[in-house]
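Continuing the batch. This is chain 6 of the set; chains 1 through 5 are on the previous pages. Same settings as before, nothing changed between runs. Recording input and output for traceability.
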Amino acid sequence: MADLPVRKIAIAGVLSAVAIVLGITRLGFIPWFSGASITIMHVPVIVAAILEGPIVGAIVGLLFGVFSLLQAAIAPTGPVDVAFTNPLISVLPRLLVGPAAWIVWRLIEGKADSGRLFGLRSSAAVLVGAVAGSATNTGLVLSGLGLFNFFPWPLIGTVAVANGIPEAAVAALVTFAIVGAWKRFPSGGGRSRLSREEE
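Output for chain 6:
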């Protein structure tokens, strides 16, 4: 932690705050069919990892997970919240979201530069990386709910398809918009001044 630049620590703090605000205000939950909701609370974790690396992503994920645990314990909003007092359900999955997204993003991104291929390759990397991060969150949380007998496995499969797929799609689009604005890769006209300074 002491080796992290001040900028990375600051961005980790800001994105952690965004994730927490999304949870407190319920803005991180988009109404879906049958009273269910699509969550985008893990998007700041994915953005942190892609912009600043897996360590920053893990820090934001850790703080997001701890907040989820405390919120479930102190101010639960439904019967399922009791499950999130277990750190293996509320904290561990969120801790791994950022690194998973970063690994997939990095594998696709490779050594893309600011030339003609930068927009296409980087766009694909961000979209697929965000889907990977979202799938990690959904898969690990639902697996924990099944392993600890909070949900029956057939229901978990249904939720994974009905909620997991749209959540991954929304996470990819929101992450793409944020990272794209930061790096300006769709325009091919060069990245933002701050992203150039990072190099």
